[in-house]
Amino acid sequence: VGEKRNLPDGKELFFHAAMLISILIPIGISITFSYFDDFQAQGRYCMPILIPLMYYLTMGLKYMIEKIFSDKKRQKIATVTIILILMTALAGVMIQVGLPMCFATAR
Fold first, then answer.
1. Distance between CA 107 and CA 28 in Å, rounded?
2. Taking the model in full, what pTM does it have?
3. What is the 3-state secondary structure (H, E, C) of the chain?
Protein backbone atom coordinates (compact mmCIF):
# COMPACT_ATOMS: atom_id res chain seq x y z
CA VAL A 1 0.00 0.00 0.00
CA GLY A 2 2.47 2.62 1.18
CA GLU A 3 5.73 2.85 -0.71
CA LYS A 4 8.65 3.59 1.60
CA ARG A 5 10.57 6.66 0.49
CA ASN A 6 14.16 7.32 1.37
CA LEU A 7 14.73 10.73 2.92
CA PRO A 8 17.40 12.81 1.19
CA ASP A 9 20.77 13.07 2.91
CA GLY A 10 22.59 16.30 3.70
CA LYS A 11 24.36 16.59 0.34
CA GLU A 12 21.12 16.13 -1.59
CA LEU A 13 19.30 18.68 0.58
CA PHE A 14 22.14 21.16 0.04
CA PHE A 15 22.02 20.53 -3.72
CA HIS A 16 18.28 21.19 -3.94
CA ALA A 17 18.55 24.24 -1.67
CA ALA A 18 21.31 25.65 -3.90
CA MET A 19 19.24 24.97 -7.01
CA LEU A 20 16.22 26.72 -5.49
CA ILE A 21 18.34 29.69 -4.45
CA SER A 22 19.84 29.88 -7.96
CA ILE A 23 16.30 30.16 -9.31
CA LEU A 24 15.04 32.69 -6.78
CA ILE A 25 18.01 35.11 -6.64
CA PRO A 26 17.93 36.18 -10.34
CA ILE A 27 14.15 36.64 -10.16
CA GLY A 28 14.48 38.73 -7.00
CA ILE A 29 17.28 40.84 -8.43
CA SER A 30 15.37 41.40 -11.67
CA ILE A 31 12.19 42.43 -9.86
CA THR A 32 14.08 44.70 -7.46
CA PHE A 33 16.07 46.34 -10.25
CA SER A 34 12.94 46.85 -12.36
CA TYR A 35 11.03 48.34 -9.43
CA PHE A 36 13.67 50.70 -8.05
CA ASP A 37 15.74 51.70 -11.08
CA ASP A 38 13.83 51.51 -14.34
CA PHE A 39 11.45 49.05 -15.87
CA GLN A 40 13.05 47.36 -18.83
CA ALA A 41 12.06 43.76 -19.19
CA GLN A 42 15.39 42.03 -19.79
CA GLY A 43 15.32 38.30 -20.43
CA ARG A 44 19.07 38.04 -20.02
CA TYR A 45 18.71 38.47 -16.26
CA CYS A 46 16.74 35.21 -16.12
CA MET A 47 19.25 33.14 -18.12
CA PRO A 48 20.90 31.62 -14.98
CA ILE A 49 17.52 30.12 -14.12
CA LEU A 50 17.61 27.85 -17.17
CA ILE A 51 20.11 25.33 -15.79
CA PRO A 52 18.21 24.41 -12.60
CA LEU A 53 14.87 24.72 -14.39
CA MET A 54 15.91 22.26 -17.09
CA TYR A 55 17.33 19.92 -14.45
CA TYR A 56 14.00 19.78 -12.64
CA LEU A 57 12.09 19.48 -15.91
CA THR A 58 14.26 16.53 -16.92
CA MET A 59 13.94 14.83 -13.53
CA GLY A 60 10.18 15.38 -13.61
CA LEU A 61 9.86 13.82 -17.06
CA LYS A 62 12.02 10.89 -15.97
CA TYR A 63 9.88 10.38 -12.85
CA MET A 64 6.66 10.60 -14.89
CA ILE A 65 7.86 8.12 -17.52
CA GLU A 66 8.98 5.66 -14.82
CA LYS A 67 5.57 5.90 -13.10
CA ILE A 68 3.56 5.47 -16.32
CA PHE A 69 5.64 2.72 -17.95
CA SER A 70 6.97 -0.11 -15.79
CA ASP A 71 8.74 -1.88 -18.67
CA LYS A 72 12.27 -0.57 -19.46
CA LYS A 73 11.72 -0.97 -23.20
CA ARG A 74 8.61 1.20 -23.12
CA GLN A 75 10.41 3.77 -21.01
CA LYS A 76 13.12 4.05 -23.67
CA ILE A 77 10.51 4.33 -26.45
CA ALA A 78 8.70 7.10 -24.54
CA THR A 79 11.98 8.93 -23.92
CA VAL A 80 12.98 8.78 -27.60
CA THR A 81 9.49 9.92 -28.62
CA ILE A 82 9.65 12.95 -26.30
CA ILE A 83 13.12 13.83 -27.61
CA LEU A 84 11.92 13.61 -31.22
CA ILE A 85 8.88 15.79 -30.48
CA LEU A 86 11.08 18.43 -28.84
CA MET A 87 13.61 18.33 -31.69
CA THR A 88 10.79 18.71 -34.23
CA ALA A 89 9.42 21.71 -32.34
CA LEU A 90 12.89 23.28 -32.18
CA ALA A 91 13.41 22.71 -35.91
CA GLY A 92 10.04 24.33 -36.62
CA VAL A 93 10.97 27.40 -34.59
CA MET A 94 14.34 27.62 -36.31
CA ILE A 95 12.69 27.45 -39.73
CA GLN A 96 9.96 29.96 -38.89
CA VAL A 97 12.11 32.46 -36.99
CA GLY A 98 15.78 31.78 -37.68
CA LEU A 99 15.81 31.51 -41.45
CA PRO A 100 13.88 34.73 -42.16
CA MET A 101 16.25 36.57 -39.81
CA CYS A 102 19.29 35.15 -41.63
CA PHE A 103 18.09 36.21 -45.05
CA ALA A 104 16.61 39.57 -44.06
CA THR A 105 18.07 42.50 -45.94
CA ALA A 106 19.16 45.64 -44.15
CA ARG A 107 17.17 48.71 -45.16
1. 40
2. 0.67
3. CCCCCCCCCHHHHHHHHHHHHHHHHHHHHHHHHHHHCCCCCCHHHHHHHHHHHHHHHHHHHHHHHHHHCCCHHHHHHHHHHHHHHHHHHHHHHHHHHHHHHHCCCCC
Q: How far apart are CA 36 and CA 78, in angstroms?
A: 47
For the segment 26-67, what is each residue's pLDDT rounded down to a tens digit? 888 888 888 888 777 677 778 889 999 999 999 999 999 999
User: What is the Cα–Cα distance from 37 to 16, expressed in whole angstroms?
Assistant: 31
